[in-house]
Amino acid sequence: MGALMQEAEVILSYNGQFNFDKIGHLLNSLKNEALVRGISMQLYKKILSVMIESLENIYKYSEYFENEQQLFPKYLPYFELRKTHGFVELITSNPIRNKDVEKLSGKIDLVNNLDREGLRDLFRVTLTNGEFSKKGGAGLGFIEMAKISGQKLDYEITPINNSFSYFTCKVPISLKNYNN
């Protein structure tokens, strides 16, 4: 695994609390990196869309941890955009409540077991019948990320303590059809 990690070229990364200013800064940094690296507009739009969904998930969920940060300073929210052999990967990590682990795993597993048509159908059904929380989430973000990337979402959940776990999600976007 160490050899694979060395092949990755980090484009952007951030570790710490997320707010609108930090998210705006990261999105502007992506725009600058896309220009410098000559990333095609089509690929840039895909990366941007997945990045917005990913960062929005962290931001929406961070409210649960405003008073808990001191409990696990090494489990702060994290974002990384990197280029590996044949892919651009967006990796996000953040604490989650243990009581949400099963529901979250179930959503991602469902998304990962569907083909493109199945994702479209699930998106429509969720949009129509979805139980939107007061924060706006009905699980559309993971569906959207899978639709945009065309890949399975890779995730890992690591227990922190009796109340919290650390959720990491990797969304790969193939470079196959782009000259990057």
Q: How would you explain this protein's 3D organization?
A:
By secondary structure, the protein is of the alpha+beta class. The chain has a single domain, classed as Histidine kinase-like ATPase, C-terminal domain (Heat Shock Protein 90, 2-Layer Sandwich), CATH 3.30.565.10. The chain is 46% helix and 23% strand. The chain has six helices and five strands. The chain has a five-stranded antiparallel sheet with strand order 1-2-3-5-4. Helix 3 packs antiparallel against helix 6 (140-149). The two termini are 24 Å apart.
Summarize the structure.
The protein is an alpha+beta fold and 180 residues long.
Q: CATH H level: which superfamily?
A: Histidine kinase-like ATPase, C-terminal domain
CATH level-two architecture? 2-Layer Sandwich
Radius of gyration: 16 Å
Count of individual beta strands = 5
- The total tally of domains equals 1
How are the strands of the largest sheet arranged?
1-2-3-5-4
